[in-house]
Amino acid sequence: MSESVEKIKRIAISCSVEYCGFKYYEIRHFFDRDEGGESFLTTEIPFSVFKSMGITKRFNGTKKINEWLATEEGRKWYIAGLNKKWGSEQYA
Predict the structure, then answer these.
(1) Within its chain, how far is the Cα of 23 from the centroid?
(2) Residue 63 Cα distances to 12, 15, 20, 66, 70, angstroms
(3) Would you say 32 and 38 are in contact if contact means Cβ atoms under 8 Å apart?
């Protein structure tokens, strides 16, 4: 990851994907570039991660996930997991 995590301005679900029975969310985090302007990076996080944490029970529960990611707890969780493989361990 080339940008520092302190520069992350906001985190939000870009889209939800169901592919061959695997459900995940593409989550974007936005940051200001040193050269000026805004940019984003996308991370894929399995639905099962959010379900096991009790944030949502349904795959279409994106509003609950976005609201949680906007909290300080959600932001810290997301940033801590950026360099880990999502779903390989519990991130709560």
Answers:
(1) 14
(2) 10, 12, 24, 5, 11
(3) yes
Which residues are CB-neighbours of 2 under 8 A, at least 6 positions away? none
Distance CA 39, CA 31 (A): 6
φ, ψ of residue 67 to 5 degrees: the values are -65, -40
* 2-42 pLDDT tens trace: 445 557 889 999 999 998 989 999 999 998 888 888 889 89
- Residue count of the chain: 92
Quote the Cα angle for 27-15-13, to 5°. 35
Q: What is the reported pTM?
A: 0.78
